[in-house]
Amino acid sequence: PANPPWWTSAVVYQVYPRSFADSDGDGIGDLNGIRGKLDHLADLGVDVVWLSPVYRSPQDDNGYDISDYRDVDPVFGTLADLDALIADAHERGIKVVMDLVVNHTSDEHPWFVESRSSTASPKRDWYWWRDPRDGMSAGAPGAEPTNWRSFFSGPTWELDEATGQYYLHLFSRKQPDLNWENPEVRAAVHEMMRWWLDRGVDGFRMDVINMISKQADLPDGPPIEGSPHGDGSAAYLFGPRLHEFLAEMHREVFAGRDAQLITVGEMPGVTVEQAREVTDPSRRELDMVFQFEHVGLDHGVDKWDARPLRLTDLKASFGRWQAGLADVGWNSLYWDNHDQPRAVSRFGDDSPRYRRDSATCLATLLHGHRGTPYVYQGEEIGMANSVWGSVRDFRDIETLNHAAESADRGADPDEVLAALRPASRDNARTPVQWDATEHAGFTTGEPWIAVNPDHVEWNVAAQREDPHSVLAHHRALITLRHANRTIQLGAFAMLLPDHEHVYAFTRTTDDEQLLVVCNVSATPYELADLLPQAVGAELVLGNRDHLPDHDPAVLGPWDARILRTT
Ligand code: ISL
Description:
- There is one protein chain.
- By secondary structure, this protein is α/β, with parallel strands linked by helices.
- It folds into three domains: 6-105 and 183-464, TIM Barrel, CATH 3.20.20.80; 110-168, Alpha-Beta Complex (Oligo-1,6-glucosidase, domain 2), CATH 3.90.400; 491-564, Golgi alpha-mannosidase II (Immunoglobulin-like).
- Helices cover 27% and strands 15% of the residues.
- It has helices at residues 31-35, 38-44, 79-91, 110-117, 183-198, 233-236, 242-254, 272-278, 311-324, 343-346, 355-367, 397-408, 413-423, 460-464, 470-483, 485-489, 527-530, and strands at 12-15, 48-51, 55-56, 68-72, 95-100, 129-130, 157-160, 165-168, 203-206, 262-266, 288-290, 332-333, 372-376, 491-495, 502-509, 512-519, 525-526, 538-542, 554-555, 560-564.
- An eight-stranded parallel β-sheet has the order 11-10-9-5-2-1-13-12. Strands 14-15-16-20-18 form a five-stranded antiparallel β-sheet.
- Helix 5 runs parallel beside helix 7 (242-254), helix 11 (355-367) packs parallel to helix 15 (470-483) and helix 12 (397-408) runs antiparallel to helix 13.
- The two termini are 22 Å apart.
- Bound molecules: 6-O-alpha-D-glucopyranosyl-D-fructose.
- Residues 61, 64, 101, 151, 171, 207-208, 266, 268, 303, 338-339, 398, 425 line the site of 6-O-alpha-D-glucopyranosyl-D-fructose.
- 6-O-alpha-D-glucopyranosyl-D-fructose binds next to loops.
C-alpha cells in the first residue's frame, strides 16, 4: 500500500506494572515507577507502551479482574499518576495502549454485585446466570449448567447460594463473564472505551476478545482426558456474533479517530483464516491479533505437559501465518508476554555459554518477520525463567490452582513442581532486573514475588554500556525496523523448511532483498552448503560478527544475520 498504517513500522513494548518498577517501596510496581523508567523505553526506541491492567481491582488475577474501569487501583497509584504517565510518554513520542478486559469483570464490580443481588435485578442479564442442570439440585456434584472446564482449573460455574443459580466464569470464580448478548452491556463498554480515548490513550490490547460471543444455548463440550470436566471452547471461542460485536465496537468507539490508534485482540485458539477476516481493513474490526499457535507447539495434553519444540513445526506455523496474512490483514509478532515462560529459556539456551547469543538470535528471528513486534519487559535484556524452590514461591492463580488440583488428585508433589517450573506464568512476572543491587533495583521494600537471583549478572545497568548486549541488539533491531521498508513491508518467503536447526527466510521489496538466517542451535553450519546466496552478501545486522573467532563463512552457534542479497 502507498500509505501503510503507522503501526506497520512500529514496535510495541509490554509493561506488566506489578513487576516493572516500584516507586514507593511497597514491593509492588506502580505508575510512578514506570514514569521513572520512560527514558529506558525511549532509549530502546519503542513506539508504543502497552500497560497490563492498572484499573481498580481485587487483584485475584493481578488486575485482569476489574472492579472499576474508570479508576486506577491504589497499589498502582492514582488516575492523576496515569494522566502524568501518558503525558510523559507522549512527550517522548511514545503512545500508550491500555489493556481492555471486557470478557469478564471482577465479582466485586458494582455491575456484578447488582446482578447477583436478585433474579429480578435489572442487571441480572448482564452476566450468564443459569439454573442447575435439569433434574439436579443446586450444589450437587455435576449440577453445573455445562460440563466446561475453567482455564484456571475446576468448573466454569459458581453457585450463588442466595438465588440458587450459577454464574459463568471462564477464568477464576472472581471473574464472571459479561453477557455480550445484552446491548446495555455493549453500550456500557463502548462508553467506557470512549472515556479512555478522550483521556488520551492511544488504543487497546483486548483481553480474550474472541470469547465475548458465546453460543447462546451453551452446549456441553467433549470430555477432557483425565479431567471430570469437558472442553467448552467450541461454544465460546469465536462465537457466532464475534464479527458483529467487533464491527459495532469499531463504529461506536474508533470510527473517525482510528488512524492514530492501535487495536490488538488477544485470541487464544484463533485460526489464520479467522485472523485474516478480523484484521481485513475493509471489515473495520481490529488492526491485528495475538495468535497462540507458536506458543502451543511445545505443549502436550496441556501447558503443564512439556514436550520438545521441533524447529520445523515452528517454521511451518510462522510460515502459514506469514502467508495467510500477506495480502490482507496483519500479524503481531511475539515470543513473550506476562502469560508465557521466558523466551531465552524456552526457545533458546539460557546456559551461561549461549544465553546472550540465543537471546539475540531469537530477537533477530522474530523482528525479521513481517508484522508488528512486541517486546515484553525484561526480554530486551534476555531475562530468563526463575528458580522455583517450592510451590510456595509461586503467586499466579493459574499455577496455584493447578498445583492444588494436582494435589487433590494425589499427584506426586515433586512431579507437580517439576511441571510448574518451566511453564508457570510467574516466570514472566519476576521483577525487572534494573541493576545488580538487592532486589535488582526494582524496589526498596520486599518484592511481592522473588527477584531472579541471576540479576547480579543480567540487568539493564550492565547492558546499557555494552555495545554487544542483548539490550543493544534490540535497540539495533528496532532502529532497523524504523528505517527499513523491506523489514516493514517486504514479502516473506520461507527457506529450508525442513532444516532442523537453521531458520532462514527472505524479505523482498521492489528494490531490495534481505536474507534472514538464524542458527537455532549450537551446531555450526557451513553457509555455502546451506544458502550459497548468503556467501559474500552484505551484513546488515549480525549478533556475533564482533567476536574475534567469527568466521563469515560459518554459521556459528546461535549465529543470526540479516544480509542484503540484492
Ligand atoms: O495464560 C494462559 C495459559 O497459561 C492462557 O490460557 C491465558 O489464560 C489466556 O491466554 C487468556 O489470557 C488473558 O486473560 C486472562 C488473564 O489471566 C491473562 O493474564 C490474560 O493475558 C483472564 O483475564
